[in-house]
Amino acid sequence: MSKRLGICIAGLNGAVASTVVAGLAWLRRGGMPMHGLISERYRQSHDLADWSEVVVGGWDPRTETIWDSARRHRVLDEARLLPVAQTLKRIRPMGGAVTARVAERHIEQFRRAHGLGPIVVINLVPTGEDEASASYAQAAAATGSAFVNFTPNRCGEEQLQDIPYAGRDGKTGQTWLKSVLAPALRARALHVAGWYSTNLLGNEDGRVVGDPIKGRAKIRDKSELLGTMLGYEPVHIVQIHYFPPRGDTKESWDYVEVEGFLGLPMALRISAQYRDSILAAPMCLDLARFMGWALTQGRKGPQTWLSMFFKAPYGTKVHEFERQVQMLEAEFARVPSSACAGRGLTRSLRR
Q1: How far apart are CA 8 and CA 288, in angstroms?
Q2: CB count, 10 Å around CB of 116?
Q3: How far apart are CA 12 and CA 94, in angstroms?
Q4: Are 40 and 32 in contact (CB under 8 A)?
Q5: What is the number of H-type helices and E-type strands within the chain?
Q6: In 244-344, which ranges are continuous DSSP H helix?
Q7: Residue 337 scores a pLDDT above 70
Q8: Spatial contact of 9 and 56, defined as CB atoms under 8 Å apart
Q9: 185-192 own/partner pairs: CB under 8 Å, 24+ apart
Q10: How far apart are CA 112 and CA 6, in angstroms?
C-alpha cells in the first residue's frame, strides 16, 4: 500500500478546512513551528505520514478555490496566504452537496489520481446537517476509508463498524479547558455548586450554532460532560451567541461557584480568547495522521483512544483530559518502538 495519505473534507470551503489546507501548505514548505500538532511526537517512531505525503480534496456547495475561501474567512492574513497562494488556487471541491454514491466515486477517483494509500474522510459540514453527514460516512464505509466526525451531527455510526471512525464534536477551546479544570476541582474535593459558560463567536459556525434551534446539538455536547467528570450534576448553563464583530476569534467566559472547607463559597472567573480555526485545524491534521495509521494497523470501530479530541467521544464515557491523553499514549505503546521510549504527552503536560 502507498504511504501517501488522502484527506477528503466535507465542508472544504469552510473556515476550518481552508485553514487546514493553508496550514498544510506551510508545513510542506518547512521552517514553521509544530505548535498544536500532537502527532508530530509519533511521526518517526510509528511511521506516520509525512506532510509531503498528504493530499487534500473534498466537497462543498460553494465550489470555490481554497484561496478564495481562505481570504473570505480571514482566519489567516494576506502575509500568511500569499506565499502559498499558488497551492491554494489549485484546490477546489470535487463537487457540491453530493449523494453517498457520488461521494464514493469521487473518493475512488481521488485515490487513483494521486496514488493514495489510506484515505480519511473528515466531516466539517455545518451543525444540523445530519443527512449530509450520514452520506459522507456511508461513502467512507463503502470505500474502506476512515471517518472522522468533527461536528455534533448524527452520522449513522452503526454503519461504520467495519472501518475505524472517531468523533463526535471537536473539543477545541472552552470545553477542553473544562475537561482539564473539572477533574482538578473534584480531586481537591471542592464542591462545584454551579458553572456558567458563555461564548461569543462571529464566524459561519457561530451564525449556525448561535441559532437556538440549529445550535441545540452543540449545546448538548458542551453540557453533558460536566456531571460525568464531577460525579454529580451542578447547576450548569451553557450559551453560545453569534456576534459578527468577533469573527473567528472566539470570546469565552466561565464563572464557577465553588464551596470549600466548612461550606464557605469561592468563585473562579475565566476569560479566554481563542482563535477557533487555529485550534481546530491542527487537530484535524492530527486526526488524519492518526486515523491513517489506524487503517494501516487494521483497526475497526470507534477509536476511543482519540477521545481527547472530542466533546462527546464515540464508545467511551471518559471525558477527563488527562485520562484521555493516557488512552492515546497506551494505544501507541501497544506498538512498541525504541524511538518513542521515555517520551510521552502526559509527561510533557506535567512539566
Answers
A1: 10
A2: 24
A3: 9
A4: no
A5: 12, 10
A6: 276-296, 321-333
A7: no
A8: yes
A9: 185/230, 185/256, 185/258, 186/229, 186/230, 186/231, 190/258, 190/259, 190/260, 190/266, 191/258, 191/259, 191/260, 192/230, 192/234, 192/256, 192/257, 192/258
A10: 11
Distance CA 247, CA 266 (A): 33
Partner residues linked to 242 by β-bridges: 201
Q: How far apart are CA 54 and CA 185, in angstroms?
A: 41
79 close to 43: Cβ distance less than 8 angstroms = no
- Specify the DSSP class assigned to residue 184: H
Name the strand (E) or helix (H) holding 191.
strand 191-201
| CA 87 vs CA 15, 54, 107, 350: distances in Å | 17, 13, 21, 39
Q: For residue 76, which amino acid is it? A: L
**How many CB atoms sit inside 10 A of residue 272's CB?**
13
d(CA 61, CA 125): 10
What would the pLDDT profile of 10-52 be if each residue is shown by its tens digit?
Answer: 999 999 999 999 999 999 998 788 999 999 999 999 999 999 9
For residues 122 and 293, give the distance between their C-alpha atoms in angstroms, rounded to a whole number. 15
Look-up: residue for cell 509531503? Answer: 52
Please state, in angstroms and rounded to a whole number, the distance separating the CA atoms of residues 121 and 7: 6
Threshold 0.90, pTM exceeds:
yes
